[in-house]
Amino acid sequence: xxxxxxxxxxxxxxxxxxxxxxxxxxxxxxxxxxxxxxxxxxxxxxxxxxxxxxxxxxxxxxxxxxxxxxxxxxxxxxxxxxxxxxxxxxxxxxxxxxxxxxxxxxxxxxxxxxxxxxxxxxxxxxxxxxxxxxxxxxxxxxxxxxxxxxxxxxxxxxxxxxxxxxxxxxxxxxxxxxxxxxxxxxxxxxxxxxxxxxxxxxxxxxxxxxxxxxxxxxxxxxxxxxxxxxxxxxxxxxxxxxxxxxxxxxxxxxxxxxxxxxxxxxxxxxxxxxxxxxxxxxxxxxxxxxxxxxxxxxxxxxxxxxxxxxxxxxxxxxxxxxxxxxxxxxxxxxxxxxxxxxxxxxxxxxxxxxxxxxxxxxxxxxxxxxxxxxxxxxxxxxxxxxxxxxxxxxxxxxxxxxxxxxxxxxxxxxxxxxxx
Length: 420
Known about the structure:
The chain is α/β, with parallel strands linked by helices. The protein has two domains: 2-81, Nonspecific Lipid-transfer Protein, Chain A (2-Layer Sandwich); 94-419, Rossmann fold (3-Layer(aba) Sandwich). It is 45% helix and 16% strand. Helix 8 (150-164) packs across helix 9 (182-191), helix 11 packs across helix 13 and helix 15 packs across helix 16. It is globular and about 80 Å long.
């Protein structure tokens, strides 16, 4: 124990912010009034702290074994400082890859996916509304202008997607994983499309149905409780969007996901795939226990893949990637905005969760989300994870005439149309 405490003291001195640890015995290591304070009610997570297993320390905080005090940015700076290795440098062995594939297949059945989506997105609509923008856009914003508010940047993101897709009045647009309806409403109201969304979240489905009625958009916007693998009998769409959804698909099901996009997209149509990708080429999740924490408390069944893997499976399906943009810094800023908003309203967040759950579950959920939002912001800041928008087309085989003769491309020759 003495060696453990000595090592811990050395770690604390090297951190970029002042930090202290109070043991369950009352003994204190580190300076008084430090920026970050960890109060251990149990010695369970002490070894994890010394080993740099920040995910295990986070779990101990959620479970109430450890209290943490300090500003979110300081806490995350300390968390990054105790890491013993790069959390995205691991290259899995053949055995690890085989086990991971089997686990992925088991985790992503129709039933399991519905349960996992509802675990996260059906936590509490009022809770999400507290710290999201008014449109409840729960994905990376696009800070077209650095002075934009979060709400403005989310609208800019919705428009950025619609411009990339070249949406036109009367087109049939499919949104795979439509959330609280931000994209389908924006596309219908600003671009005149027939917008069709699907979700596995009952809360989101009910909310969008109410909003369709309130806005008088029956016949223009439609939403279903439906899995992307159950689209038999639906005719292909002119354009497809998928925002913050393929992270839930699972590595083993990614080929099927893209084959569905290909099948449901008209020849010559465009699809925009927007999602979180792994920062490392080989790692399936962020190391140091961070991925385990996310899977346990936030996104069960979530899997990240490097953009190269995503584009590989996209290409194998027959889709052609025509434009890819990395919005990683935009997501760091988005997440810090969410984190700041939640941190400023903690008593209200606690009351909202306690209205739906018992006090213990509500407290655990709030502690988990505080760590999740700030931790993900740190992860995007440091490049442990990224966010890519990948625009693809289903080639129609028709050669162009005039200036584009022989090009076989319905996609513009430059990006001016996006920004004009």
